[in-house]
Amino acid sequence: MKRGDIVIVNFAVYNPREKVRPALVVQNDRDNARIQNSIVALITGNVRRAVEPTQLLLDQRHPDFTASGLHKNSVVNCANLITIRQQDVLHTIGALSRNTMNQIDLCLKVVLDLH
Predict the structure, then answer these.
(1) DSSP state of 72
(2) Residue 8 CA to chain centroid, in angstroms?
(3) pTM beyond 0.85, yes or no
(4) Burial class (CB in 10 A: 0-12, 13-18, 19+), 72
(5) Apex CA 93: angle with CA 8 and CA 107, to 5°?
(6) Cα distance between residue 33 and residue 91, in whole Å
(7) pLDDT tens digits, one per residue of 3-61
């Protein structure tokens, strides 16, 4: 599992009201390789808040939409981060480019108030 991968995770193991859904790996590759947990940003099909600086819209016009493996317009919600066990990843469906991950970094900076 690498930073920028879009993975399908069974979030029900963390909260029984949750479901299987996509998430973006935002943790650095060094830690992804050496520990059994990874930090991910949830991905949602609810695009209402896509204009917020903490969200990144991946729609059919986005250059990484096809490579993402997503099947509908979605938002990477960088305000909704969770640490997961790598064993709860069902599979990887796609990945985002370095350019798009730079945009994700900007969203994370807003969420975490980094300057």
Answers:
(1) S
(2) 10
(3) yes
(4) exposed
(5) 75
(6) 16
(7) 999 999 999 888 888 889 999 999 999 999 999 999 999 999 999 989 999 999 999 99
The total number of structural domains that make up the chain: 1
Question: Exposed/middle/buried for 19, CB within 10 Å: 0-12, 13-18, 19+?
Answer: exposed
- 84: Cα within 13 Å, side-chain hemisphere: 30
Quote the strand ranges of 26-108, DSSP E. Answer: 37-44, 55-58, 74-85, 89-95
Rounded Cα–Cα distance for residues 42 and 25 (Å): 9
Taking every pair of Cα atoms in the chain, the longest distance, rounded to a whole number of angstroms, is: 37
Q: How far apart are CA 41 and CA 22, in angstroms?
A: 9
Residue for token pair 């729609």: 59
Please give the residue range of the domain that contains residue 75.
5-112
Closest CA to 95 of 104, 107, 84: 104
Residue 56's CATH number = 2.30.30.110
User: Among residues 44, 91, 92, which one has the least CA distance to residue 68?
Assistant: 92
Scanning 1-115, the segments in alpha helix (DSSP H) are 29-34, 65-68, 98-112
